[in-house]
């Protein structure tokens, strides 16, 4: 997997949160497609797609038991098609190197309200999984977009939906409340950065000033529809998904084991915490929850 943004790649290697959520979530997928001959992933926010290298490796290792006919990944997006096409090419090359039959599709829409089942290339024999890593928080300003996605997914009937979201409440309409929540959350995150990255790191400078700086400014200072960056805690998401006719599924012991195993590979792993909120896994830094990983099924 080459040509990834160097800052993104550095963060992926330095901070445990991303890898913990990816390995735990992908483990849940592996368990649910264990005997499938055709697997179709619907990714609602694919970005660099590095999480799918984990799945491709897992499927490659079981080829002697269950011959996989096809792994298809469909990326759903409203922008950045060139970047997504690049992700598809990297994943295709990686899958080919491991002998995994692979197809990459892109569904581009101008607005998630326009998304329809007809836009997807579906096969009656394939097992469908939906994956949403930090996909829904950008739609909190217009929840009808989330509702439309759920209607489309319900028709396609995925066997599982894996959801990862920031575990924080940055959506208060009251400035002071929002400011305090952002302060506490990012105090923990900046402590993580100080622990895991060198002070003079160029990637750290870009991360703090560009990635986090712009996001914090938008969360705190912007109002109304200008506030694009919004986060809510898992209990709010739980109510959302239940309302859409979904049932929370249990994260297996294997998923939790994968999360714990990944933490042990990081020098700063002892500063991370793994807790449960019902059936949802919360990943934290020194006791402050940072993100949630949950799995869902349609009733």
TrEMBL record:
A motif (VHIID) lies at residues 39-43. Residues 86-118 are annotated as: Leucine repeat II (LRII). The keyword Transcription applies. Residues 221-297 are annotated as: SAW. Transmembrane segments: none annotated. The keyword Disulfide bond does not apply. InterPro entries: TF_GRAS. Keywords: Transcription, Transcription regulation. PROSITE patterns: GRAS (PS50985). Belongs to the GRAS family. PANTHER family: OSJNBA0084A10.13 PROTEIN-RELATED. This is Uncharacterized protein. It comes from Gossypium mustelinum (Cotton). The lineage of its organism: Eukaryota, Viridiplantae, Streptophyta, Embryophyta, Tracheophyta.
């Amino acid at each position: 997997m080459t040509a990834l943004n160097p800052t993104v790649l550095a963060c992926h290697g330095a901070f445990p949160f991303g890898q913990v959520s990816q390995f735990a979530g992908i483990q849940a997928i592996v368990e649910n497609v264990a005997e499938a001959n055709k697997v179709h992933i619907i990714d609602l926010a694919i970005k660099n797609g590095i999480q799918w290298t984990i799945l491709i490796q897992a499927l490659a290792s079981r080829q002697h038991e269950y011959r996989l006919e096809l792994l298809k990944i469909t990326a759903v997006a409203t922008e950045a098609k060139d970047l997504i096409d690049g992700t598809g090419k990297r994943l295709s090359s990686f899958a080919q190197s491991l002998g995994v039959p692979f197809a990459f599709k892109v569904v581009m829409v101008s607005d998630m309200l326009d998304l329809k089942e007809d836009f997807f290339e579906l096969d009656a024999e394939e097992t469908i999984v939906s994956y949403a890593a930090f996909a829904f928080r950008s739609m909190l300003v217009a929840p009808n977009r989330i509702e439309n996605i759920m209607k489309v997914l319900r028709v396609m009937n995925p066997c599982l939906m894996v959801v990862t979201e920031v575990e924080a409440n940055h959506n208060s309409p009251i400035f002071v409340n929002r400011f305090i929540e952002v302060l506490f959350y990012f105090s923990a995150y900046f402590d993580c950065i100080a622990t895991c990255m060198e002070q003079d790191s160029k990637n750290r400078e870009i991360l703090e000033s560009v990635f986090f700086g712009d996001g914090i400014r938008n969360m705190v200072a912007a109002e109304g529809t200008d506030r694009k960056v919004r986060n809510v805690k898992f209990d709010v998401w739980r109510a959302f998904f239940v309302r859409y006719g979904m049932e929370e599924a249990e994260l297996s012991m294997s998923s939790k084991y994968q999360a714990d195993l990944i933490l042990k590979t990081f020098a700063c792993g002892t500063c991370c915490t793994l807790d449960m909120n019902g059936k949802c896994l919360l990943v934290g830094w020194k006791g402050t929850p940072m993100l949630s990983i949950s799995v869902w099924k349609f009733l």
